[in-house]
């Protein structure tokens, strides 16, 4: 598979910020493929576009790319509740896609970054299992990885709307789950989150927000912003980038949701075929499989946490 040609602005950013050198790219891809061929525990995608996304996410450090890829496939094995049964036509996934809880928006910001709207309180907790919610979110994230050069080169800016969150929503979270998902986002994906903007915060979400924050690396914590009102958000994420329902110009929510629903459905065979890409810990070199404790630091991690 050929690598997509970048626009002039993206090519300049990739060179300046990610150390991308088109003259060296084929050699870098060859190096990663040869490394993967020597990893008996990994079954991985090796097409050029996919590998280039990981190189970009790691600023073309070959060693960081290897570490990130190993973690990506290791977590796919460690979290079967997220990375199996990813058929977008399953009723539970269809329901979540129709809600548009995780929604990449069409217009980039002034720095070229992809804006993603996340509406955490839009679903009924008695109808949506939290693991299916995260599963569907990660399916959308995988489509971004594979299709969106802007997200991998310029990064992402999230707008997280917590309207209508209740204690019933919050009861779906546990410290164990929060730790797993934080590890997945921080260590398993080569997406570059540049800002996480929270709006409509309420008391119900504060405990879970602090829990996520406690597991974040310092760099990520510095990119968290809690906005007291929409005018504050607009200073960071201009109106023109947001859906009509948020005072913006990017189109109505129902049209944006339907567009992404169709995009995910069109990749059904890709998702089903993709379930074979994972790690086999019995074959990991050195004879020491990665355990849940290795990945998530479970032993004693939550004894001091109060989530009541």
Task: Provide a short characterization of the protein structure.
The protein is an alpha/beta fold and 308 residues long. It contains 16 helices and 7 strands.
Helix content: 40-55%
CATH homologous superfamily classification of the largest domain: CRAL-TRIO lipid binding domain
Beta fraction: 5-15%
SSE arrangement, N to C: HHEHHHHEEHHEHHEHHEHHHEH
Tell me, rounded to a whole number, the average pLDDT: 91
Structural class: alpha/beta
Structural domains: how many: 2
Chain oligomer state: single chain
Query: Per CATH, what is the topology of the largest domain?
Result: Phosphatidylinositol Transfer Protein Sec14p
Q: Would you identify the regions where 5 or more consecutive residues have pLDDT less than 50?
A: 299-308
- Look at the structure and give the CATH class of the largest domain: Alpha Beta
Second-tier CATH architecture of the largest domain: 3-Layer(aba) Sandwich
Characterize the largest beta sheet: strand count, sense, and whether it forms a barrel: 5 strands, mixed
Give me the Rg, rounded.
19 Å
Shape designation? globular
Q: Compute the separation of the termini in Å.
A: 51 Å
How many helices does DSSP assign? Answer: 16
Q: What is the topology, as strand order, of the major beta sheet?
A: 2-3-4-5-6
Annotation, overall tally of beta strands: 7
């Amino acid at each position: 598979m050929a690598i997509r040609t970048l626009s002039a602005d993206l090519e300049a950013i990739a060179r300046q910020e990610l150390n991308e050198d088109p003259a060296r790219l084929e050699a870098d891809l060859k190096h990663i493929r040869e490394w993967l061929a020597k990893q008996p525990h990994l079954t991985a995608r090796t097409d050029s576009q996919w590998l280039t996304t990981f190189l970009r996410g790691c600023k073309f450090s070959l060693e960081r790319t290897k570490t990130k890829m190993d973690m990506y496939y290791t977590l796919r094995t460690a979290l079967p509740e997220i990375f199996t049964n990813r058929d977008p036509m399953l009723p539970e996934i269809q329901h979540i896609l129709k809600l548009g809880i995780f929604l990449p928006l069409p217009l980039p910001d002034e720095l070229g970054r992809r804006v993603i709207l996340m509406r955490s309180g839009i679903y009924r907790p008695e109808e949506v299992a939290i693991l299916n919610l995260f599963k569907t979110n990660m399916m959308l994230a995988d489509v971004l990885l594979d299709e969106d050069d802007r997200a991998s080169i310029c990064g992402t800016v999230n707008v997280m709307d917590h309207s209508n969150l209740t204690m019933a929503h919050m009861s779906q979270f546990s410290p164990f789950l929060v730790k797993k998902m934080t590890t997945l986002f921080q260590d398993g994906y080569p997406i570059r989150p540049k800002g996480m903007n929270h709006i409509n915060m309420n008391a119900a979400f504060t405990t879970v927000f602090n829990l996520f924050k406690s597991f974040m690396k310092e760099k990520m914590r510095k990119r968290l912003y809690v906005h007291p009102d929409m005018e504050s958000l607009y200073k960071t994420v201009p109106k023109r980038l947001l859906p009509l329902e948020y005072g913006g110009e990017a189109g109505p929510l129902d049209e944006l949701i339907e567009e992404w629903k169709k995009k995910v459905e069109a990749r059904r065979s890709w998702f089903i075929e993709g379930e074979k890409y994972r790690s086999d810990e019995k074959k990991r070199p050195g004879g020491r499989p990665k355990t849940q404790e290795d990945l998530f630091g479970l032993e004693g991690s939550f004894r001091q946490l109060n989530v009541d």
